[in-house]
Structures are given as structure tokens and as C-alpha cells.
Write a structure and sequence with these properties.
Elements (H helix, E strand, L loop, with lengths): L1 H26 L5 E8 L5 E10 L4 E15 L6 E15 L4 E12 L2 E12 L5 E8 L2 E2 L4 E2 L2 E8 L1
Antiparallel strand pairs: 1-2, 1-10, 2-3, 3-4, 4-5, 5-6, 6-7, 7-10, 8-9
């Protein structure tokens, strides 16, 4: 009986030790600024993006950001080239307590007066203390008349 009480006491002490460690981790300030290059994704080909995280609870965060893409293309007549700067504002909701997150969100692809909405669901690795950022996701373009399945992958840095 005495051995069982000692074992129970040691188990309770070790469990409370884990709880204290997790509380200390959640109190550390999280790095919230990120810059990354995305291939595919919210833009058709590539974009250079910036976003900022805002913690809403212990397990959820909101990322607000935007990306830029410079496109060159051949006009419809085939004789001239054109160029456009594309903007992709986005808002994403992240679910996860630490570095590994489920990422969902919406964005707009703005080019020459045309607006195409896109959705996102994917995985985001963003270390709490900053460093290498990785994202991969399914980013379909959805309007009342079209559905274009699309995806993207991002590499960047959180600071």
C-alpha cells in the first residue's frame, strides 16, 4: 500500500510538472511577422507575401497579409506583350497551439480590374520563436460560374 501511495504521489508531481511547462511555453511571446514566397496558391504563378499573426486564443490565430505578383503576358492579338501587377490580400485562421497549424482562409486575386476570390485549407509550419516558415495548401478559385482547383506551396521566414 505504501508503494502504491508513493507511486501515485510521484505520478501527480510529474503531471503537474508537465502542466507548468506547458503554461510557461504559452506565456512566451510569439514571433508574428512573416515574409514568404508562394508558388501557385492565392496567385496563379508565384507571389511575394507578408503577413502578421494575431492570437485570438490559446489555440487559434488570425493571419492578415497580402502578396504581390508581376505578370507579363501576350495580348489577344498575339502581337503585343502586356504586364500587370497583381495584389492578393488574404485573411487566414490558424488552428494549433504551437508551430504546427491547420490553416483555413480566403483571399482575393486582384488584376487589372478583375477580382477572383480563392479559398484555402492547408498545413502551416511556423515556429513560435521565429525561423523557417512552410505552408502547403489547397487554394481553389471559386466564383458563381467557375471552380478552378489549385494549390500552393510557400517557403519563408518568421521574425
Amino acid at each position: 500500500m505504501k508503494k502504491a501511495l508513493i507511486l501515485l504521489l510521484l505520478t501527480c508531481i510529474s503531471l503537474s510538472g508537465f502542466t507548468q511547462t506547458n503554461d510557461l511555453i504559452s506565456l512566451k511571446p510569439q514571433k508574428t511577422n512573416s515574409i514568404y514566397l508562394e508558388l501557385g496558391g492565392n496567385s496563379f504563378l508565384y507571389s511575394l507575401n507578408y503577413d502578421k499573426l494575431f492570437r485570438t486564443s490559446d489555440a487559434t490565430k488570425i493571419a492578415l497579409g497580402a502578396g504581390l505578383e508581376y505578370l507579363t503576358y501576350m495580348n489577344a492579338d498575339g502581337n503585343d506583350y502586356g504586364a500587370s501587377l497583381c495584389l492578393t490580400p488574404a485573411v487566414n485562421l490558424l488552428f494549433g497551439k504551437a508551430s504546427h497549424n491547420l490553416e483555413t482562409g480566403v483571399s482575393l486575386f486582384l488584376i487589372s480590374g478583375t477580382v477572383l476570390p480563392a479559398a484555402r485549407i492547408g498545413y502551416r509550419y511556423q515556429p513560435v520563436n521565429g525561423g523557417f516558415l512552410f505552408r502547403i495548401g489547397f487554394t481553389p478559385i471559386i466564383t458563381t460560374s467557375i471552380f478552378i482547383p489549385w494549390g500552393g506551396i510557400s517557403l519563408g521566414y518568421t521574425f
